Amino acid sequence: MTRLLLIAMTLFLFNSSPASAACTCQCVNGAVTPICSSTLDILPICPPRICPITPPSIAPINPLRVPPIGTSNCSMKQVYNNRSGQYEWKQICE
């Protein structure tokens, strides 16, 4: 019985997939905002934190494209990159 349990636990550990975060709280234009990879995801409640001040810059030209299903418009916004420590322009759809 213990051998069967050990085999079952081993199979469970090797077959389980890693969890992926579909929504994250990021600094967008100087404010904490939830960003999700799908419109079907539930928006998380973002804890308050202080975002770095956004540097003044001119927004790049917004590429013409149809917004994804469940969104009404897309625009270029400055999103803080924790790895580089700088804001980067990304297209965010709402």
Kindly describe this structure.
This protein is α+β, with helices and mostly antiparallel strands. The protein has one domain. It contains 1 helix and 4 strands, in the order αββββ. Strands 1-2 form a two-stranded antiparallel ribbon. β3 and β4 (86-93) form a beta hairpin. It starts with a helix and ends with a strand. The model is unreliable at 8-19 (pLDDT under 50).
Strand order of the largest sheet: 1-2
Measured by DSSP, the beta-strand proportion falls in 25-35%
Radius of gyration: 20 Å
Distance between the first and last residues' Cα:
54 Å
Kindly report the average pLDDT value: 81
What is the subunit arrangement here? single chain
Helical region count? 1
Structure classification: alpha+beta
Helical percentage: 10-25%
Q: Spans of 5+ residues with little confidence (pLDDT < 50)?
A: 8-19
Q: What string, H for helix and E for strand, traces the elements in order?
A: HEEEE
Number of strands: 4
Shape descriptor: globular
Q: Work out the count of structural domains.
A: 1
Largest sheet: 2 strands, antiparallel
